[in-house]
Amino acid sequence: MSRSRRRETIASSTEGGQVRVWVPYSTFVTDVESLGRGVEVDVFTGEGAPPASIASVQFYVVPYSFTPTTLEITAQMASLQVMQTLTAGYEHVLPYLPPNVTLCNARGVHDSSTAELALTLMLASLRGIPDFVRGQDQGDWRHAEHPALADKTVLILGYGSIGAAIERRLTPFETRIIRVASRSRPTDEVHGVDELATLLPTADVVVVSTPLTPATTRLVDAAFLAAMRDGALLVNVARGAVVDTNALLAELTSGRLRAALDVTDPEPLPADHPLWNAPGLLISPHVGGNTSAFLPRAQRLVRAQVARFVAGEALENVVAGPVGPSVAVPTQAATGV
Questions:
Q1: Which pLDDT belongs to residue 334?
Q2: Which of 39, 65, 239, 262 is most exposed, with minimal Cβ within 10 Å?
Q3: CATH (domain of 228)
Q4: Residue by residue, what is the 3-state secondary structure of 134-146?
Q5: Residues classed as catalytic
Q6: What pLDDT, in 10s, does the model give residues 65-75?
Q7: pTM
Q8: What Rg do the C-alpha atoms of the chain give, in angstroms?
Q9: How many independent structural domains does the chain possess?
Q10: By C-alpha distance, which of 214, 225, 241, 219 is closest to 336?
Q11: Does residue 224 sit in helix, strand or coil?
């Protein structure tokens, strides 16, 4: 969940002094081309035939999509050196990452939007907003008392850049925060995941913001949920597979726990899936990072990364590359984006 962030210098081997870059949005072109005459930019949105320069592209900004076709084409990219995702999560890219190609994620691009949604889901679920909306649809004045966020203990599972952004937004709400990462960091008051059995019974709200890795897949299982206190709220803005859907469904059906999910497993959630009708559950359709803040921040990241590549400087947010599985992973979650 929480490992050291990595930077890596990539020597850009160019032919004729040119660097070929693919971007997914035409709005990125001028920004990237402004880096110098040696930078040539093509647009590949992920739809239709790829540009004719596919064999010479060196820096590929992957479209903001989970569509396999945007990744399968890397097999045709003979000159590829860098893949830059626009998502914080990158587990979907790893099976398609060619040897000797460096993968960078979009750490920082989605922090604010994902943290906003995490807080929105918390407040909406605690304060009964879904029931109020249903009442409004029916002209029904549903006056009732609901829990406040104030004075609650919130456990943030996956304390990286998104987890820290969630905490910053929680601070004015007079909450107590418990930070949890893969390993304890006592100087930062961060607990290790091995302490969860002791920590979970003390939390009123558990927010999941971990990356999806073999270690975090089904981390929130039946035992994890059983350790949560009665009436607690689970909020997942990471990846659906971090949570055991059947185990959560059992707790929701019993009425012992509540949940708010921006991500599900499976996803998209089929129309006949029992989660849709589970009591105490609020679902949003994986929109954590899909806001007006996305494009400007993504554009700044891409320009900065291409500038580093052209200059032969250290790239940010390196999550995988030629050195193999020992590559460190940045301290941020896959977060619903």
A1: 40
A2: 65
A3: 3.40.50.720
A4: HHHHHCCCCCCCC
A5: 239, 267, 286
A6: 888 999 999 99
A7: 0.86
A8: 21
A9: 2
A10: 241
A11: helix
